Amino acid sequence: MERDLSATAAAMDGKETVAGLKTRAPAGGLTVERFFTTPGVDPADELAWELRTASISGEDGKSVFEQKNVEVPKSWSMLATNVVASKYFRGTPGTPERETSVRRLVGRVVDTLTRWGAEGGYFATATDRDTFHAELTHLLLRQKAAFNSPVWFNVGVEEHPQCSACFINSVGDSMESILGLAKTEGMLFKYGSGTGSNLSTIRSSKELLAGGGTASGPVSFMKGFDAFAGVIKSGGKTRRAAKMVILNADHPDVLDFIRCKSNEEKKAWALIEAGYDPSFNGEAYSSVFFQNSNNSVRVTDEFMRAVMNDSAWTTRAVRDGRPMDTFKARELFREISAAAHLCGDPGLQFDTTINTWHTCSNTDRINASNPCSEYMFLDDSACNLASLNLMHFRTIDGDFDVDAFKHAVDVVLLAMEIIVGFSKYPSEKISQNSHAFRPLGLGYANLGALLMATGLPYDSDAGRNYAAAITSLMCGEAYAMSARMAGKMGPFDGYAKNEEPFLGVIRKHRKAAYNVSPEGVSQELFEAQKKSWDEALALGTESGYRNSQVTVLAPTGTIGFMMDCDTTGIEPDIALIKYKKLVGGGMLKIVNQTVPQALEKLGYPQTQAQDIITYLDKHETIEGAPHLKPEHLPVFDCAFKPAKGQRSIHWMGHLKMMGATQPFLSGAISKTVNMPSDASVEDIEKAYIEAWRLGLKAVAVYRDGCKRTQPLNTSKEKVKDTKTAVAEPALAAVKDANAMRRRLPDERQAITHKFSIGGHEGYLTVGMYEDGTPGELFCVMAKEGSVVSGLMDSFATAVSLALQYGVPLQVLVDKFSHTRFEPSGFTGNPAVPIAKSIVDYIFRWLSLKFLPSEQADGVEAAVEKQVAAEPVAKPVQVTAVALPMSTPRKTYLNQADAPPCHTCGEIMVRNGACYKCSNCGTTSGCS
């Protein structure tokens, strides 16, 4: 990829124009050192490459995307291949213009950024230009770093591409401004970006208009914004738009704002109970407002102290600040927590904390954030993001490679800085602020995997110290690099006005770095993170800073898949057992590959480690594994409880991790604190209070199962191992045995269930043995004499005989669930909202009634016995076959109300404040 850069070199005289602006002549330019690469050697040639077929299948097994002869590094997984080919390759499929190679994709982006850098005077010499090109190529091809999606979409394709994923928009108290915001948001949604706004500038519904009438208030206008977002969708796809709506706690309409989404949630429940489709995009939720935004209340320290002291809180008029309504602060706080308990919104943004850490407070205050709450800055601004893959910065001994990480920060931050001046923006205000303040959002992914591989529990002081030190090093080095760029290119235009608050914030970061505890942190890393802030402060005091902000922690959804990350953003791992879906059907069970690394780091001999892995593979939990020391169990705790275990990370552990890393971020953290379904309103109050005490800038909670949406494929579906179908060993056992029919007593208990599928009504009657297990099935259809009625009556007789001859119900459920044929459609049953056929409905209903999730049936035990006798499945590189990573088992139960993916139909999982699809890599929210 060491291309002929003569055109780029010619541009280094500083005479070309960029986006209508004259580029500055090089003021010496920057020196870029080689660390990962060798002069004269193309980083791409250091990798082994192969041709694959990128393929994504939907939930129904049909192909959603396919591209043959895709050139990828052999080290990349099929999931990364599928995501990159389907999301980032440009050109019409099937035409010569279509990109076919990761080599070409990375070259398109790196070549363009290098040319821009030369045009902008960023490189001291042609050698520095070539070094930048090689080092950035290495980082991207080796999956050590990735830019946010708009960069991959647009750079090298358009002359002046939109490269930012996150936007903040202002709104004034006039109809012109309100309608202008609707237009700006609509255009951002059209191109797949997310945006946030604080509507507290709009006068309340309790205030008068100039003509004497009463104002509508921000909540009323929110309905219009919501409708536009729902109609336009996002990126031209069927997924809902990503937007954040914020209202200050002292706004007169704050109570209406707090209740607006929960009240609409109750309406959706009523529609569901009346028989309307309850799925994420179904009629029930499409008929109510406020489903297209994340809502947050802005609270100050004054408000939180009033809550703690149970004192009064008074709202104030927008126009003149006069006192309006007075509440008990604790009662208002209770309303916030109760609404979040019911529907997940509103979250909280801590205004005092946000503006205390604001580098440009002399220009204006920070009022809002992007939809995922990690980017917080001035109104009418934008941020381009990039993330580093922490697992690729480990030494051969499993320690953290400080020097490699620092160099990667420098190279990626330089690339992001170059992007700012050469991008286009959706409005003139955003363009001006982007050029004047140049905010960046560098972050990382794979923290959860790194901690486990290092042998540190996610929920531990040592784990938090380690995470804090890495985050501190990243941010300190980024500010130091920004100061170096300022020394050559000059500080950002708004720096002089904000020098005092800016340096004050740097000193606060530096003080926090010196307060990091060394427990769990290597001496090298501990000292390096402190030194980075010493350097950042010294260089910045001398030269200023090129960028107003440098770091955030974003969800890293799609780009996390591109980098083959096991965990995204700051999240812990979801589960120790993962599944890969095979093209021909079925699932391949794989032990999380971070587990062997953790066992090695913890000092277990290879034989003991293999015993532990075999136990995990068999039992799907590491609890009770042989040789495993009790004190090491927390290392393997994940976000959700395993199917047959009891351990998981407590929600307070998530908050504490956020608290440990927040002091080392320019922005904030995109993370939803998942709470169990039995969490109380009081628990949510405790979470919000603890978030404030820990110094977080924002927090959102989500109580699992609070919404009544249901996934299109049932959460109770069992995953089949690919080496042997679940039904086969059990059926073989029945065949070999001397089968005896177990007749039901003449008088027995029975249950009758009425159903309707696509307008076809019927009744199921299940006769039961004395122990409550089913022994017979009758299916009566409303239209007697029809083909459907006759077939279902005969089928029910066959099922009854199978049950009486000892075929386990689990086998029948596994065999017949999700059978697809007509009639199919909506059912009106919230537990099974959509059926693919009458047979599908019958067995999913039987599973819900007679197969509780905790039941250990004989069939599963038989399969586990066979799997345990075989070698543990290892991930393999496969050519011409897609192996997308599937959502882990039980995850559906913990995220049963997640939406289906608009691309492939698989059920998505939470990713920060948004969702991601583990099958095709699609994300909701910011790209």
From TrEMBL:
Residues of the TSCPD domain: 745-847
Principal EC category: oxidoreductase
Keyword presence, Disulfide bond: yes
UniProt signal peptide: none
EC number assigned by the record: 1.17.4.1
Gene Ontology terms describing biological process: DNA biosynthetic process
Keywords annotated in UniProt: Cobalamin, Cobalt, Disulfide bond, DNA synthesis, Nucleotide-binding, Oxidoreductase
GO molecular function, one term: ribonucleoside-diphosphate reductase activity, thioredoxin disulfide as acceptor
Tree of life domain: Bacteria
Record domain Ribonucleotide reductase class II vitamin B12-dependent N-terminal: where: 52-143
Chain ranges of the Ribonucleotide reductase large subunit C-terminal domain: 164-702
Cofactor: adenosylcob(III)alamin
Catalytically driven reaction(s): a 2'-deoxyribonucleoside 5'-diphosphate + [thioredoxin]-disulfide + H2O = a ribonucleoside 5'-diphosphate + [thioredoxin]-dithiol
UniProt family annotation: Belongs to the ribonucleoside diphosphate reductase class-2 family.
Function description: Catalyzes the reduction of ribonucleotides to deoxyribonucleotides. May function to provide a pool of deoxyribonucleotide precursors for DNA repair during oxygen limitation and/or for immediate growth after restoration of oxygen.
Name the UniProt record assigns to this protein: Vitamin B12-dependent ribonucleotide reductase
Native source species: Archangium gephyra
